[in-house]
Automatic annotation (TrEMBL):
InterPro entries: DUF4349. Keywords: Membrane, Signal, Transmembrane, Transmembrane helix. The keyword Transmembrane helix applies. It holds the Pfam family DUF4349. Residues 41-54 have a biased composition (Basic and acidic residues). This is DUF4349 domain-containing protein. The lineage of its organism: Bacteria, Bacillati, Bacillota, Tissierellia, Tissierellales. Residues 1-26 form the signal peptide.
Length: 289
C-alpha cells in the first residue's frame, strides 16, 4: 500500500515538473513571437519612414504659378536661306509669332539672323525639339523670373482701386453741390487712370508668362563646328580630327594662293627692277674691262 502511494506521488511529481517545463516553453515561445512581431513592426515602420523620406527628397519643388521664361539659342548653318525657311515652318506649326527679326551680311557675304520669337508656354518643349532642323546648335541658355509676388500684389492693388471707384461713384450720386461733384470727378479720373495702369501691367505679365520668349541667333558659316561630347566614341573623334586637319590644310592653301595673287603685281615689278639692276651691273663691269 505504501509502495503504491509512493508510485502515485512519484508520478504526480513527474507530471508537475513536465507541466512546468511545457508552461515555461510556451511562455518563452509567446514572448519570442511578440518580440519578433514588434521587431517586424518597427522594421516595417522604419522602412516606410525611409521610403517616405526618399520620396520627399527625390521629388522636385513645384514651379511657381507665374514665371517668365527667356531662352537664348545660337545656331550655325551652311545654308542660311534653307534654315530660315525651316524656322518659319516651325513657328507656323506651333502657332508662335516673330516679335523682332534682323538679317545682316558679314564681310564674306555670309548671312546672320537675329530673331525674337514668342512661343506658347504649352508648346515650348516641342518647339525646341523641332529647331534641330534649322542647323547645328552651339549654345543655349535659359533664364526664369518668378513674378508671382509682383502679380498678386498688383491684383490686390487693383481690388483696392476698384473698391475706391465704387465708393466715389456712390458719393457722386448723393452729392448736391457743384464743387463736391467736380472734386469727386477729379478723384474718379485719377482712380480710373490707376485702374487702367494696373490692368495693363497684369495683361503684360500674363502675356510674358503665357508666351516664352526665345532669342534665336543663326550664323551662316563655311564649316559647322564639331559637336563632340563626353559620349562621343573614339572613332568619331578620330574622324572629326582628320576632317578638321584636312579643312585647315585646304583653307591655309587657299589663303596662300590668294595672298600670292595679291602680291603678284609687286613681285613682277620687283623682278623687273632686279633684272634692270642686274643688266646695269653687267654692262658696268664690261665697260671697266
Amino acid at each position: 500500500m505504501i509502495n503504491t502511494k509512493k508510485k502515485i506521488l512519484f508520478l504526480f511529481s513527474v507530471l508537475l515538473v513536465l507541466s512546468m517545463i511545457v508552461g515555461c516553453s510556451a511562455e518563452k515561445s509567446k514572448n519570442t513571437s511578440v518580440d519578433m512581431a514588434i521587431s517586424d513592426s518597427d522594421s516595417h515602420e522604419s522602412s516606410e519612414k525611409e521610403e517616405s523620406s526618399f520620396k520627399n527628397e527625390s521629388s522636385s519643388p513645384l514651379e511657381p504659378e507665374k514665371v517668365i521664361t527667356t531662352i537664348d539659342i545660337r545656331f550655325e548653318t551652311t545654308e542660311f536661306d534653307r534654315s530660315n525657311d525651316e524656322l518659319n515652318k516651325v513657328i507656323e506649326k506651333h502657332q508662335a509669332y516673330v516679335e523682332y527679326s534682323n538679317i545682316s551680311y558679314s564681310s564674306r557675304n555670309f548671312q546672320n539672323g537675329e530673331f525674337t520669337i514668342r512661343v506658347p508656354k504649352s508648346s515650348i518643349n516641342n518647339f525646341k525639339s523641332d529647331l534641330k532642323t534649322i542647323g547645328n546648335k552651339v549654345w543655349e541658355s535659359t533664364n526664369k523670373q518668378d513674378v508671382t509676388k509682383q502679380y498678386t500684389d498688383t491684383e490686390s492693388r487693383m481690388k483696392v482701386v476698384e473698391v475706391k471707384e465704387e465708393r466715389i461713384l456712390a458719393l457722386m450720386e448723393k452729392a448736391d453741390k457743384v464743387e463736391d461733384i467736380i472734386a469727386l470727378e477729379n478723384q474718379l479720373n485719377e482712380v480710373i487712370y490707376e485702374k487702367e495702369r494696373l490692368k495693363s501691367s497684369l495683361m503684360d505679365l500674363d502675356d510674358k508668362v503665357d508666351f516664352t520668349t526665345i532669342n534665336l541667333y543663326i550664323q551662316e558659316v563655311e564649316k559647322l563646328t564639331s559637336s563632340t561630347s563626353p559620349e562621343t566614341s573614339f572613332g568619331r573623334k578620330v574622324l572629326d580630327a582628320v576632317d578638321e586637319s584636312l579643312y585647315f590644310f585646304k583653307n591655309t592653301l587657299e589663303k596662300l594662293v590668294i595672298l600670292l595673287i595679291y602680291l603678284l603685281p609687286f613681285i613682277i615689278i620687283l623682278g623687273i627692277i632686279g633684272l634692270l639692276i642686274h643688266k646695269g651691273m653687267v654692262k658696268y663691269k664690261k665697260s671697266k674691262k
